[in-house]
């Protein structure tokens, strides 16, 4: 069984289909994270799905996810480039 760390509190969490709150340890931590999303502190481009559970690279994906989050925190403003209209 894979163990991941709860993104909210850092507690070890069993990554299994039985844990409907994964990757969180509990509903409480999940709701806290959803609250953070609502305020724009977090974002995700590709939500994890049931299919991802069978992916042997899931740990790499999780690592990539958190790296993206860390990158976003510092470079968000730089990514807000003005969009130039393609049609004149
Ligand atoms: Zn937690």
Describe what this molecule looks like in 3D.
The chain has one domain: Erythroid Transcription Factor GATA-1, subunit A (Erythroid Transcription Factor GATA-1, Chain A). The chain is built from two helices and two strands. The longest helix has 18 residues. The model has no long low-confidence stretch (mean pLDDT 76). With 88 residues, the protein is an alpha+beta fold. The protein has a two-stranded antiparallel sheet with strand order 1-2. Zinc ion binds next to loops. The site of zinc ion has 8 residues, from loops.
Quick overview of this protein structure:
This protein is α+β, with helices and mostly antiparallel strands. It contains two helices and two strands, in the order ββαα.
Distance between the termini: 56 Å
- CATH topology label: Erythroid Transcription Factor GATA-1, Chain A
Number of domains: 1
- Strand order, main sheet: write it out: 1-2
Mean pLDDT, nearest integer? 76
Structural class from helices and strands? alpha+beta
Q: Please describe the biggest sheet, giving its number of strands, its sense, and whether it closes into a barrel.
A: 2 strands, antiparallel
Strand content: 5-15%
Return the CATH architecture: 2-Layer Sandwich
**Ions, cofactors, ligands: which are bound?**
zinc ion
Q: Are there runs of 5+ residues with pLDDT below 50, and where?
A: none
Rg calc: 16 Å
Amount of helix: 25-40%
């Amino acid at each position: 069984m894979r163990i991941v760390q709860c993104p909210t509190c850092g507690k070890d969490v069993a990554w299994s289909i039985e844990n409907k709150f994964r990757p969180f340890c509990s509903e409480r931590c999940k709701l806290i994270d959803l609250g953070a999303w609502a305020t724009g502190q977090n974002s995700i481009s590709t939500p994890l799905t049931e299919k991802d559970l069978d992916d042997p690279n899931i740990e790499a994906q999780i690592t990539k996810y958190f790296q993206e989050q860390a990158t976003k925190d510092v470079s968000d403003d730089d990514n807000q480039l003005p969009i130039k209209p393609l049609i004149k």
